[in-house]
Hints:
Shape of chain B: elongated
Shape of chain A: elongated
Number of strands of chain B: 3
Number of helices of chain A: 9
Oligomer: heterodimer
Distance between the termini of chain B: 42 Å
Structural class of chain A: mainly alpha
Number of helices of chain B: 4
Structural class of chain B: alpha+beta
Number of strands of chain A: 1
Largest sheet of chain B: 3 strands, antiparallel
Largest sheet of chain A: none
Order of helices and strands of chain A: HHHHHEHHHH
Radius of gyration of chain B: 15 Å
Radius of gyration of chain A: 21 Å
Order of helices and strands of chain B: HEHHEEH
Helix content of chain A: over 70%
Amino acid sequence: MVDDADERAxxxxxxxxxxxxxxxxxxxxxxxxxxxxxxxxxxxxxxVGFGLLFLRFxxxxxxxxxxxxxxxLGALYVLLVGAFVLSARSGIRAxxxxxxxxxxxxLRYGLSWAAAFASVVVIASRYSDRLAxxxxxxxxxxxxxxxxxxxxxxxxxxxxxxxxxxxGLWITLVNxxxxxxxxGWHALAISVAGGGGLLAAGFGEWLRWRRxxx
Amino acid sequence: xxxxxxxxxxxxxxxDPVIHAQARLRIMVVLSVLREGDRxxxxxxxxxxxxxxxxxxxxxxxxxxxxYIDVIKTHQGRTPTTLIGLTRRGRLAxxxxxxxxxxxxxxxxxx
Lengths: 214, 111
């Protein structure tokens, strides 16, 4: 039997509109990934990981804080893997049981990251043995961050997100400037401006997400 | 099948009775959040609305009979899946319903 309360019409136009808005906001929150899980872990990973990289491989080959070279590299790797797991899980959760155009979009966009990073690994690996350590770090991080910037711009086209577009442009700009400044400076730029940009974007998106607006 | 669509916004007094019931209104809202061309599987819709399966089915049938949603039974691997999405007509009906409610509201405010 149909529940009486379910069959009842909302009491007034105000009540109807309130019901529509509340249900819409709740549905949007449920179906869009939480920005605290999609942006913030990457922001933290860049801030801390590239920050450590800067301290160990400073500008002009200086070691600002003495530590074995595997420490910043290992920390960055672990933080990036952690960020990947958190953001992928929240994306999959938001999109589960949804079939159609957007699941195809999401899958192809996900594959574009895999394709881009496969290329980065193959290209950068070839030169890693022939370059000095600071140059190797610059090569890997410069290529990787370039891919991230471009894919955020592409993601902005897919999901019509202005925030994502601005973030992609910002990351690209920071990456190019840091790269031109050279080893050490690049890590500092990505840590502070790149990681900071990701955290700011995550916070801005979260404010909208909380209200069910994105 | 003749689809006799209401042209323009329905008069304020005649809110679409198919949508104007709490449960079906909430179903329509959730489905309208999906992007056009997307469908939601039954268990997720049920979870989001917090309705019993039987109750949800009854309301879905009414919406389907009105031509507002389509219900597709398919297989995900070996598991049978029911996918639900708004039809073009349903999307339009929901937009008209929302516009009619807003019109009613501005009428009340003017008084």
